[in-house]
Amino acid sequence: MPVDYEINANKYWNDFYKIHENGFFKDRHWLFTEFPELAPSQNQNHLKALLSENRGSEVPACRSSEDGSGLIREAQHSCSSVSLGRKTQPPPVEENVTQKLRHLEVCADEFPGSSATYRILEVGCGVGNTVFPILQTNNDPRLFVYCCDFSSTAVELVQTNSAYDPSRCFAFVHDLCDEDKSYPVPGDSLDVIILIFVLSAIIPDKMQEAINRLSRLLKPGGMMLLRDYGRYDMAQLRFKKGQCLSENFYVRGDGTRVYFFTQDELDALFTTAGLEKVQNLVDRRLQVNRGKQLTMYRVWIQCKYRKPLLSSTS
Fold it and tell me: Which segments cross the bilayer (predicted)?
């Protein structure tokens, strides 16, 4: 039975999007609070304003957020100010030169978005609930967004969306676990890679190689951003006997699968792929459905991992 879910994974996700189309997930506008890297020009402008108004004072730490569903993050899990501090410091001159040379090498061969100076890839884009908010929030013409999904139905829904602009975005079908199929961008060309509730959908044995391949696409200094299901999330506790395929890996009623992570497991995946930890936190939330009089305890993990900058001697 587990083999059937692996072989027919594409069918199950296509069926999911054929049934729900673009009405299942809400646009993720909370992403810009959690991941300011997704709005680079806005973030830089905001930072300049802060520095000019508060010259000589410290840049404030990130605020804990409240998303559109009215879910409030616990104070002890608010994001670290360490990552913001790192981001505000200009890199050394030799690193700037190295990155400019790298950019020229990348642009030697044409590919979608080759003229862009800031490139974002979302893996497992679904119907565009992350991609379209990014494009709407950031009007910088130098930004280019790539997005891919296992489901051809999902990608078609992205491409036929009225907000889809081929001059700023490139949507394509891609299997995260297919080691023989290359991405439409060269290595060392992406600034940000986004994985939002997608890594958990693939078989655990294939997760490491998938992250290794994605890591090779990042520029030195580029970031991989993840948000996914944490161990003992309400969804895990509600699975019935017979739905467990392997340890902490389950199949839903519609045939799609989900894994529940620990922080250490994700840290091992990213560091093995050569990335450095910037953030790895547990987000615990109490979700209340007043209509159904249900109280649900959610456990999610949020990570930011950076590809090391090239040394001046390499």
Answer: none
Contact between 270 and 224 under an 8 Å Cβ cutoff? The reply is yes
**The predicted structure's pLDDT at residue 92:** 52
d(CA 314, CA 310) in angstroms, rounded, equals 7
Distance CA 309, CA 98 (A): 9
Which residues, in sequence order, are CB contacts of 93 under 8 Å at separation 6+? none
Tell me if 172 sits within 8 A of 155, measured CB to CB: yes
Coil vs helix vs strand at 279: strand
* pLDDT at residue number 77: 37
What is the model's pLDDT at position 42? 56
Within a 10 A sphere around the Cβ of 307, how many other Cβ atoms? 22
Distance CA 199, CA 227 (A): 9
In 3-state terms, what secondary structure has residue 251? strand
Neighbours of 9 (CB within 10 A): 20
The helix (run of H) or strand (run of E) holding residue 96 is helix 93-107
Task: Report residue 142 as tokens.
Answer: 């130098």
Sequence-distant (6+) residues with CB within 8 A of 156 are none
As a dihedral over the C-alpha atoms of residue 172, residue 150, residue 136, residue 75, rounded to 10 degrees, the angle is -150
pTM above 0.85, yes or no: no
Per-residue tokens: 29:
């506008």
| Nearest by Cα to 266 from 297, 221, 314, 304 | 304
Query: What is the enclosing helix (H) or strand (E) of 2?
Result: helix 2-7
By the 8 A CB rule, do 38 and 120 touch? Answer: yes
Tokens of 307: 């590809």
Question: Distance between the two ends of the chain, CA-based, in angstroms?
Answer: 49
